[in-house]
Structure formats: C-alpha cells, structure tokens
Amino acid sequence: MTISLVTGANRGIGLEVCRQLAARGHEVLLGARDPAAAERAAKEAGATPVVLDVTSAADVERVAAEVGRLDVLVNNAAITYDTWQRPSTADLDVVRDAAETNLYGPWRLTQALLPALRRSAHGRVVNVSSEAASLAGMGSGTPAYTASKVALNALTKMFAAELRPDGILVNAVCPGWVATDMGGPGGRPVADGAASVVWAATLPDGGPTGGFFRDGRPVPW
Q1: Helix, strand, coil abundance in the chain, percent, nearest 5
Q2: What's the DSSP call for residue 195?
Q3: What is the rounded radius of gyration, in angstroms, for the C-alpha atoms of the chain?
Q4: InterPro entries per the record (predicted)?
Q5: Residues 27-61: pLDDT tens digits?
Q6: Distance CA 125, CA 194 (A)
Q7: Which is catalytic among the residues 81, 107, 145, 199?
Q8: Cβ–Cβ < 8 Å for 8, 31
Q9: pLDDT band for position 176 (50/70/90)?
Q10: What is the pLDDT of residues 69-102, one digit of tens each?
Q11: Sheet with 27-32, edge to edge strand ranges
Q12: Which of 15, 53, 165, 168 has the least CB density, counted as fewest CB within 10 Å?
C-alpha cells in the first residue's frame, strides 16, 4: 500500500489531489489545520484526516511521530495570493507570514518526515509551486506569494540534489491557474490542476527529480 500525505487538503487542489490518489489505491492522509474541516474533507475524499498546521512545530513533530512509513509527501498548503501589493510598498509582515506557510512549513515538514520517506522504496516529494515563481516571466505582482514560491523552488532543487542517492524524487509542480478560492473564477478545472500534482506524486523509479513542471512538462525556472 502506498501511503501519501497531502497538506492544506480540506478544499481546492489539495482535496482533489487526495481524491485522485485515493482512486489510485493510495492510503491518503489528508492534512488540514481545522479538525472539523479535516474530518469533513477526508470523508469526501476517502482519506484519513490528520490535524496539521505546517507552521506549528508541535503539529509537525506529532505527525512525524505517528507516521511510520511515508511514500509520498505533497506540500500543498499555501496562503496569501497578495494581488493588492507591489514590492515597493509591500507590507513585510504579510511577506513573513506567507513565508511561514509557503516556505518554512514545507521545509520543516520535509525535514521531520525524511526518516519515514527513507523507509519507502519509492519516496516522492511534491512541492506545489506556481508559474508566478518562474523568473523567466516574472512581473511585479503578488510579491509575498511570488517570493515565497521562488524560495520553495530553490528548496526543491536543494532537497532533490541531497536525496537523489536515496532514490527520493523531489519536484516542484505548477498546477496552473485553477478555479479555487485562492485562484478565483475563470481558471481551469480543479481536477486538471490536481492531475498535474498527481503526475509528480506517482512518477516511476528513475523519473525526473529537481524539476519544475506543469502537466508533466518543464516550466522555465
């Protein structure tokens, strides 16, 4: 049985990733900050609820102690798509808050779960990023979100390089502009964005690592 943990999974892309992984036969651990939301979403997705705030060291330590083996970690939890800000006037407290969830949260959780991932014969880490973090086409918008996702991409490259000898594949995935609470109306279906993440979560041994992808195709760094 493949065991997968998805963070920020009580709605949107995270919830749909849980659904798709469960449909593939994975035992899915659905992480969410609110216990009631986790319970409700887990019933909907066919998953097991896990109360997990990635900014809480206590939560992360508890989950790491409870997970014996882990095959797939999807770092999906993210906040603050700050369309109202520009870098010249950005509130740096907002930037710091975004980094706590979007960068330090995945970093902390990946560190804590590495022993469990190393017990897997097919470890996978997927960091849900965004094309907004692509330096090739970057503008001035959403500075808190964008800067945190650029840093997450860098973290992806570093973990991939370190964990390559262990056979753990680490990749960043852009799900595209998806019609979610964060993305707003007009985006593509949630199922399509989630499928992009699931692709990286289910890569075969010998698949790519240290890459940035959307729909299985490279995104410019």
Answers
A1: 45, 15, 40
A2: H
A3: 16
A4: NAD(P)-bd_dom_sf (IPR036291), Sc_DH/Rdtase_CS (IPR020904), SDR_fam (IPR002347)
A5: 999 999 999 999 999 999 999 999 999 999 999 99
A6: 15
A7: 145
A8: yes
A9: confident
A10: 999 999 999 999 999 999 999 999 999 999 999 9
A11: 48-51, 27-32, 3-6, 72-75, 124-128, 169-173, 212-214, 217-218
A12: 165
Q: Among this protein's residues, is 81 annotated catalytic?
A: no
pLDDT at position 178 is: 72
* Residue type present at position 63: V
Each residue's pLDDT tens digit, 105-117? 999 999 999 999 9
Residue 3 main-chain phi, psi, to 5 deg: -105, 125
- What is the reported pLDDT for 23? 98
Tokens of 119: 């017990």
Q: Which two tokens stand for residue 30?
A: 């659905």
Dihedral angle over CA of 90, 96, 100, 106, nearest 10: 60
**Nearest C-alpha neighbor of 127 from the set 95, 91, 155:** 155
* Strand duo 217-218 + 212-214: pairing: antiparallel
The pLDDT score that the predictor gives to residue 188 is 81
Residue 8: which region, alpha, beta or left (left: phi > 0; alpha: psi -120 to 50)? Answer: left
Beta-bridge partner residues of 173: 128, 213
Using DSSP's 3-state secondary structure scheme, residue 73 falls into strand
